[in-house]
């Protein structure tokens, strides 16, 4: 049985991310990613990383499930909160007033969320959140 973190690593391997990218998404070290990868191989009975990658690609969840189980879980609570409010049509300044923080802090949380999710524009971020039933 894989741990939650090992499932996250496996999911990201299925998205064709490299160790360095997985480490950034999960905010862990590359050596930790390699250790998780080795543990996954051991638990699933694989002897080569290529076998693991093939398995990850075969068992990769659909896009909607992928969002719920993948990088969305790695967002910090405040980043999720910011994304939810943006999806409700709030501006950065409105969110800042509501949360009693600087609008620049709101923008930084939004940037961090977009980087974590490998999203490059707000439209895609909104679409991903919508596909996730608003459960950012």
Keywords, separated by commas or semicolons:
single chain; 2 domains; Arc Repressor Mutant, subunit A; elongated; 136 residues; 69% helix
Structure overview:
The chain has 136 residues and is mainly α. It has helices at 4-14, 19-26, 30-44, 49-58, 63-69, 77-87, 92-99, 103-116, 122-131. It has two domains: 4-60, Winged helix-like DNA-binding domain superfamily/Winged helix DNA-binding domain (Arc Repressor Mutant, subunit A); 71-131, Orthogonal Bundle (Arc Repressor Mutant, subunit A), CATH 1.10.10.10. It is elongated, with a radius of gyration of 17 Å. Helix 1 packs across helix 4 and helix 7 crosses helix 8. Mean pLDDT is 83; it is low at 63-69.
Number of domains: 2
Stated plainly, the CATH topology of the largest domain is called: Arc Repressor Mutant, subunit A
From the N-terminal CA to the C-terminal CA, the straight-line distance is: 27 Å
CATH class of the largest domain, anyone? Mainly Alpha
**Fraction of helical residues:** 55-70%
Q: β content, as a range?
A: under 5%
Q: Give unreliable regions as ranges.
A: 63-69
Largest sheet: none
Compressed to H and E, one letter per element, the order equals HHHHHHHHH
Summarize the structure.
69% of the residues lie in helices and 0% in strands. The chain is mainly alpha-helical and 136 residues long.
């Amino acid at each position: 049985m894989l741990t939650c973190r090992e499932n996250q690593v496996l999911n990201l391997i299925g998205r064709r991310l490299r160790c360095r990218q997985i480490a950034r998404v999960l905010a862990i070290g590359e050596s930790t990613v390699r250790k998780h990868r080795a543990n996954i191989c051991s638990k699933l009975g694989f002897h080569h990383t290529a076998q693991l990658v093939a398995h990850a690609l075969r068992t990769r969840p659909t896009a909607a499930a992928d969002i719920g189980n993948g990088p969305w879980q790695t967002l910090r609570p405040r980043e999720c909160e910011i994304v939810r409010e943006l999806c409700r049509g709030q501006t950065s300044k409105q969110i800042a007033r509501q949360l009693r923080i600087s609008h620049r802090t709101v923008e930084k949380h939004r940037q961090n969320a977009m980087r974590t999710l490998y999203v490059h524009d707000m439209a895609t971020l909104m679409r991903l959140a919508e596909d996730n039933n608003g459960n950012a």
